Amino acid sequence: MLHTVNKSPFEKNSLDTCLRLAKSGSEILLLEDGVYAAVKGTAVEQKMRQALSDYTVYALGPDLKARGIEEDRLIDGIEVVGYDGFVDLAANSDRIQSWL
Amino acid sequence: MGNGVKKFMYVNRRAPYGTIYALEGLEVVLIGAAFDQEVCMVFVDDGVFQLKKGQDTAESNMKNFSPTYRALGDYDVNKLYVEKESLEQRGMSEDDLLELTYEDEDDDYKEKPSIRIVNREELADLMEQQDVILNY
Fold first, then answer.
1. What residue ranges define each of the domains in chain B, with the CATH number in brackets?
2. Read out DSSP for chain B?
3. ipTM
């Protein structure tokens, strides 16, 4: 299953609930303000590193760029995808859950 | 203050693109600047992301309004307080922020930085000194 998270982890608990309920082996795509969770050195880095052992985590490139986040600031293991990659992830998943 | 000038503080707590708060707040500050009040801005929580340098919205088809913050100095909005604790929680430092300056007309129009990093105690004290506080 593909999970998308579009809220900042510092403002909403969407990411926490996603991580609590997503089955191991799922894909998680961070987009819009959700991409702030992908950055190194933040208060949620440890949580994300933990998540990377259970899930494949992606971040949407255009949303990173809009927010001025360079790819070298991302936690290792998080994969950057474009809109085409987003479409592929969605098309290849039997189900999608959007954590708003 | 008896001359009709009030101290206005605009508190920004939202990231720039996920919601419209940041852009609306900035527009209100620019409009309000026409009224010759004493204005400062605060960036706390996700509001610090508004000042992140290097924003590029070309691929996401949104309006990049981060260059607009550079205009604030020309409107005599030259006190932008950024909470240190909010930066640290987000893995950021002053180096991550836009370089915003203003010309100090009381000091031979010298260019000076508009952004001031403050800790939470300093920020709490600043809030106590205001006449009007508006949150976005």
1. 7-135 (3.40.1260.10)
2. -TTS--EEEEEE-S-TTTSSHHHHHHHHHHHHGGG--EEEEEE-GGGGGGGBS----TTTT----GGGGGGGGGGT---EEEEHHHHHHTT--GGGB---EEEETTTTTEEEE-EEEE-HHHHHHHHHT-SEEEE-
3. 0.92
